[in-house]
C-alpha cells in the first residue's frame, strides 16, 4: 500500500533551500543589530554573507573610495604604465583591441576615455563575432601593422592568445594584455600581462571584470581613481555578471551615483530608449535594460556601434546610435523567438521519436538548425534551461560547410567543461566553464555528441539534481515587511552576482483577498493577512492561479521585499517568485446558483485533467453526461461507486450536487491519498433542476414519510421541544389539517421545524392522532428525544448540514481532519504489511 504524504494545492516551481542561522549566528545578529542600529532581519542577512563583525559589516554598508586597492599590486602594472607613458611621449600609434560583448565594449570605452585624456594617438578594434570570432587574430594584427600601430593594448581579452601575441611581436608590435578570464597553463609572452587571476599575482581581489582591470590601469596612470568613469565600470561589471563584492561593489556604487547625474550623451540616450529613469537607476536597470542593447550590437551587427554610443561627443550622434542599438535589440528578440520556436519543434519531435521507440526523453538538449545566428544561441539555451531544466546546447549550422557553432548552458551538478572535454575527439574547438560553454563541431558528429553527453548526464546526476533549486536567505513573517526594514535593506545594494537581492520565505500568512491584474489578467495581486496586518504581494505571470485561492488560504511565498510608491504614498509589498500551498485546499462554490454553470467555468479556468467528478445519484450523472463540455473530459462516480473502487490517485475532487451525507463525503475523501484540491460545487439542490422543498401540510399526512428539512444551526434543542409541548398542552386537541402553519405562527418558527417536532412527539408516543385531530397522551412514558428515529436522523442531518453548508473555516478544518484520518489509515496499513 502506498504511503501518503502531505498533499498540496500548489506546488512550488523549485525546491526551496532555506538557509538559517545557528544559535551562535542568531546571537551575533542580535549584537550586530544593536551596534549598527539595524533591523534584526538585515543583521541576519549580513551574518549570512560573512559580515559577522561590526567593523567589516560597517565597511560593507558604508565603505567608500578608501576600499579601493593599490593598482600597482597587480602583476605587470608597472611595466604596462611605463610602456604606455613611453608611447605617449614618443607619439606612437596605439590600438585598443577589445571584445564584442558588453564588458568588452565598456572596457574599450574606458580605455578610449583614458587615451583621450592622455592625448594619445590611438584607435580601437573589435573583431566581428561571426566573421572573426573571439580574441586576437593574425589578420587583425596585419591590419594594425599596416596602419603603423606600434603598441596594442587588449581589454577583456588576450590571456590565451599565445600564438597571436608571438606573431604581433614578430611584426614589431608590442602587446599589453589586460584581461580577467581564467589564465591557461601556458601564458603569452606579452610585454605586460595584467590579470588578477594569474597564480603569482598578489592582488587581493580576483573578481574584477575586464572593465575593472582597465579602470585599475587608468587609476595607475592617472595617480588617482577616475570616479567619473565608474558609470562605464558599472555597465561592464553588471553585464558580465561579476560578483558585486569588494572593489566591484564600491565601483558599481559610485557608478550608479555617477549615472544619476551623468552628463555623458551616450548613457542619457541609452537610458531614454530603454525607458530608464536615471534619477532612480539600479543595477537591475543596467542588467535588463542597458546591457542587452549594448550586447545586441555585437550579436547582430558589429560592436563598434555600441562603442560609438558610449563615446559619443554630441547629443545627436548619441541619440542616433541609441536608436540603432534599440532597433537591433528588438531584432535580436525576434531572432531569438524565431529560433526558440524552431528549436521547440525539433525538441518535441525528438521526444516523440523517443516515446515511439520506448526510450526516455534525452537527458541533454542538443538542437541544431541551419543559419541559426551564433550570436544569440546562448540566449536560446538559457530559455530551454528555464523551461525544462536540462543542460542545453544550441548550435547554428553553416549549410555550406556543415560546421556548427554553438553555446551551452548547464544546470547545477553537470559540469559542461568537463563534459565537453570527455567529447573532445568529436569537437573542433571548445571552451568555457561549468555553467556555460561554447563549441564548434561538424554536423556529422552531432548524433554521437548528443548520445555521449546524455550518457554523462545519466552517470553524473542523481534524481534530486533534475529539480531546480532556489536558495532562500531567510524565513520571515509579515511583521518584517515594514518600510523601515526595506529602507535598511537598500544598504545592501547594489544587488547582482555575488550579492543577490535578499530572497525571503514569507510564512504564517493567509490570503485576505486576490485579483488578477495587467493585460489579459496574466498577473496576480494578493492581499496577505497575519497578526492583524496586511501586505500586498504581486506575482507576475501567476494570474492563472487566482481561481485556486479562497479567502483564508494558508500560503507560503518566496520572493523579495520592495517599496511601492504611488501617488505620493509609500508602502511595502512582496514581489512573488514562487508559491506553495501545503494543505488540501477547498475551492468553495456552494453559494453559486447553478452548480453546472460553476463547473463549466472552473473547467475553463483551472487545470482539472486529474480530477474526478463525484455525484450523489444518477440524476446528476445524466445531467453531466448531457453536457458535452464536461462529460467527455472527466470520469464520473456516485459516492457508493467511488468507495467500492478503492484508493484513488486523483488530485482533485469535484463534488457536484449535494453530498448524501457528511459520512459519505468523509469516506470519499479518505479514499483519495493524493488529493490536493476539493471543489465544493453544490448548493441545497437535491436534483440538478430543482431546489429541495419542504413538504406541504395537508389532511391525512403520512407521518411515516421522512421530513425533508435542510437543517443548519436552527436544529431544535430540548428547550424548543419543551416550549412546543407546553403550547400543545394549551391548544390540544388540535385539528391536524393546517396545524403546522398554525403552530408556526404561534411559536414564530418555520413550519418545517414544527412538522419535524410533531413527528418526534408521535414516535415517542407523547401525542396520538384520532381521526383528524392531534391529542396529547395522558401520563406518557418518559423517554429521551434520542429514542425517536426521526430525531436521531434529524440530528445527524443537522450535523452534516453544519459541515456541508456551514462556515467555510469549519468546513476546511473538517476536510483536513478527514485527510489526516486517511493518512493515518494508510500508514497503519503500511506498518502492518
From TrEMBL:
The lineage is: Bacteria, Bacillati, Bacillota, Bacilli, Bacillales
Enumerate the spans annotated as DHHA1 domain. Answer: 363-456
GO MF term set: exonuclease activity
Domain spans labelled DDH:
94-237
Q: Which organism is it from?
A: Paenibacillus mendelii
Recorded family membership: Belongs to the RecJ family.
**Pfam entry (one):** DHHA1
What the entry lists under InterPro entries is as follows: DDH_dom, DHH_sf, DHHA1_dom, RecJ, RecJ_C, RecJ_OB, SSDNA_exonuclease_RecJ
Instruction: Tell me which SUPFAM superfamilies the record gives.
Output: DHH phosphoesterases
User: What is the gene called?
Assistant: recJ
- Per the record, which residues fall in region Disordered? 688-707
Residues forming the Single-stranded-DNA-specific exonuclease RecJ C-terminal domain are: 714-808
Supply the alphabetized keyword list: Exonuclease, Hydrolase, Nuclease
Highest taxon listed in the record's lineage: Bacteria
Q: What is this protein called?
A: Single-stranded-DNA-specific exonuclease RecJ
**Which Gene3D superfamilies does this one have?**
3.10.310.30, 3.90.1640.30
Enumerate the spans annotated as RecJ OB domain. Answer: 472-578
Amino acid at each position: 500500500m502506498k504511503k501518503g504524504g502531505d498533499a498540496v494545492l500548489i506546488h512550488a516551481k523549485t525546491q526551496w533551500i532555506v538557509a538559517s542561522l545557528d544559535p551562535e549566528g542568531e546571537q551575533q545578529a542580535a549584537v550586530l543589530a544593536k551596534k549598527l542600529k539595524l533591523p534584526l532581519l538585515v543583521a541576519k542577512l549580513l551574518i549570512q554573507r560573512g559580515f559577522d563583525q561590526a567593523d567589516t559589516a560597517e565597511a560593507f554598508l558604508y565603505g567608500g573610495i578608501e576600499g579601493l586597492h593599490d593598482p600597482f599590486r597587480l602583476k605587470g602594472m608597472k611595466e604596462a604604465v611605463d610602456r604606455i607613458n613611453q608611447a605617449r611621449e614618443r607619439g606612437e600609434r596605439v590600438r585598443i583591441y577589445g571584445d564584442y560583448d558588453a564588458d568588452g565594449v565598456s572596457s574599450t570605452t574606458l580605455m578610449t576615455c583614458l587615451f583621450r585624456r592622455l592625448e594619445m594617438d590611438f584607435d580601437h578594434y573589435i573583431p566581428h563575432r561571426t566573421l572573426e570570432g573571439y580574441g586576437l587574430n593574425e589578420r587583425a594584427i596585419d591590419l594594425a601593422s599596416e596602419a603603423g600601430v606600434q603598441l596594442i593594448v587588449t581589454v577583456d581579452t588576450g590571456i590565451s592568445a599565445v600564438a597571436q601575441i608571438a606573431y604581433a611581436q614578430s611584426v614589431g608590435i608590442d602587446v599589453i594584455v589586460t584581461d580577467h578570464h581564467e589564465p591557461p597553463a601556458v601564458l603569452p609572452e606579452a610585454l605586460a600581462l595584467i590579470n588578477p587571476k594569474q597564480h603569482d599575482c598578489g592582488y587581493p581581489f580576483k573578481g574584477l571584470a575586464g572593465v575593472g582591470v582597465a579602470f585599475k590601469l587608468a587609476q595607475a596612470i592617472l595617480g588617482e581613481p577616475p570616479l567619473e568613469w565608474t558609470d562605464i565600470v558599472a555597465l561592464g561589471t553588471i553585464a558580465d555578471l561579476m560578483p558585486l563584492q569588494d572593489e566591484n561593489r564600491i565601483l558599481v556604487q559610485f557608478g550608479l551615483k555617477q549615472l544619476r547625474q551623468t552628463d555623458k550623451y551616450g548613457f542619457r540616450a541609452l537610458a531614454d530608449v530603454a525607458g530608464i529613469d536615471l534619477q532612480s537607476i539600479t543595477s537591475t536597470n543596467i542588467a535588463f535594460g542597458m546591457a542587452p542593447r549594448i550586447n545586441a550590437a555585437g550579436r547582430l551587427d558589429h560592436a563598434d556601434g555600441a562603442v560609438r554610443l558610449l563615446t559619443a561627443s554630441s547629443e545627436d550622434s548619441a541619440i542616433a546610435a541609441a536608436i540603432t542599438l534599440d532597433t537591433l535589440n528588438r531584432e535580436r528578440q525576434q531572432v531569438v523567438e524565431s529560433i526558440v520556436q524552431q528549436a521547440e519543434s525539433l525538441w518535441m519531435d525528438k521526444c516523440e521519436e523517443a516515446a515511439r521507440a520506448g526510450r526516455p526523453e534525452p537527458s541533454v538538449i542538443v538542437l541544431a538548425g541551419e543559419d541559426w545566428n551564433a550570436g544569440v544561441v546562448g540566449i536560446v539555451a538559457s530559455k530551454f534551461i528555464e523551461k525544462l531544466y536540462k543542460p542545453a546546447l544550441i548550435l547554428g549550422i553553416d549549410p555550406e560547410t556543415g560546421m556548427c557553432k554553438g553555446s551551452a548552458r548547464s544546470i547545477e551538478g553537470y559540469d559542461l567543461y568537463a563534459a565537453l572535454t570527455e567529447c573532445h575527439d568529436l569537437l573542433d574547438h571548445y571552451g568555457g566553464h561549468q555553467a556555460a560553454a561554447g563549441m564548434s563541431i561538424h554536423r556529422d558528429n552531432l548524433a554521437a555528441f548528443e548520445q555521449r553527453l546524455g550518457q554523462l548526464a545519466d552517470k553524473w546526476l542523481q534524481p534530486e539534481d533534475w529539480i531546480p533549486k532556489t536558495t532562500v536567505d531567510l524565513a520571515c513573517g509579515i511583521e518584517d515587511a515594514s518600510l523601515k526594514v526595506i529602507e535598511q535593506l537598500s544598504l545592501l545594494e547594489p544587488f547582482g552576482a555575488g550579492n543577490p537581492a535578499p530572497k525571503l520565505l514569507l510564512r504564517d500568512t493567509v490570503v485576505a483577498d486576490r485579483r488578477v491584474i495587467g493585460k489579459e489578467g496574466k498577473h496576480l495581486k494578493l492581499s496577505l493577512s497575519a497578526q492583524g496586518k496586511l501586505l500586498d504581494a504581486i506575482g507576475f505571470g501567476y494570474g492563472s492561479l487566482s481561481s485556486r485561492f479562497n479567502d483564508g488560504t494558508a500560503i507560503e511565498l518566496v520572493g523579495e521585499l520592495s517599496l511601492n510608491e504611488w501617488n505620493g504614498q509609500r508602502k511595502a509589498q512582496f514581489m512573488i517568485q514562487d508559491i506553495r500551498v501545503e494543505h488540501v485546499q477547498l475551492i468553495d462554490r456552494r453559494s453559486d446558483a447553478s452548480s453546472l454553470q460553476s463547473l463549466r467555468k472552473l473547467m475553463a479556468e483551472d487545470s482539472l485533467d486529474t480530477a474526478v467528478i463525484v455525484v450523489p445519484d444518477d440524476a446528476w450523472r445524466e445531467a453531466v453526461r448531457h453536457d458535452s463540455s464536461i462529460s467527455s473530459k472527466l470520469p464520473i462516480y456516485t459516492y457508493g461507486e467511488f468507495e467500492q473502487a478503492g484508493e484513488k490517485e486523483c488530485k482533485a475532487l469535484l463534488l457536484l450536487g449535494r453530498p448524501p451525507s457528511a459520512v459519505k463525503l468523509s469516506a470519499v475523501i479518505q479514499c483519495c491519498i493524493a488529493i490536493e484540491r476539493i471543489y465544493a460545487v453544490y448548493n441545497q439542490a437535491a436534483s440538478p433542476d430543482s431546489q429541495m422543498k419542504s413538504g406541504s401540510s395537508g389532511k391525512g399526512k403520512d407521518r411515516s414519510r421522512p421530513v425533508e428539512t435542510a437543517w443548519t444551526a436552527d436544529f431544535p434543542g430540548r428547550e424548543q421541544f419543551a416550549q412546543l409541548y407546553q403550547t400543545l398542552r394549551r391548544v390540544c386537541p388540535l385539528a391536524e389539517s393546517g396545524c403546522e402553519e398554525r403552530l408556526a405562527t404561534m411559536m414564530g418558527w418555520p413550519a418545517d421545524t414544527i412538522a419535524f417536532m410533531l413527528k418526534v412527539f408521535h414516535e415517542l408516543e407523547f401525542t396520538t392522532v384520532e381521526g383528524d385531530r392531534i391529542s396529547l397522551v395522558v401520563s406518557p412514558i418518559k423517554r429521551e428525544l434520542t429514542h425517536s428515529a426521526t430525531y436521531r436522523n434529524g440530528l445527524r442531518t443537522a450535523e452534516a448540514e453544519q459541515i456541508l453548508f456551514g462556515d467555510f473555516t469549519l468546513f476546511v478544518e473538517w476536510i483536513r481532519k478527514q485527510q489526516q484520518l486517511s493518512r493515518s489509515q494508510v500508514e497503519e496499513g503500511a506498518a502492518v504489511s
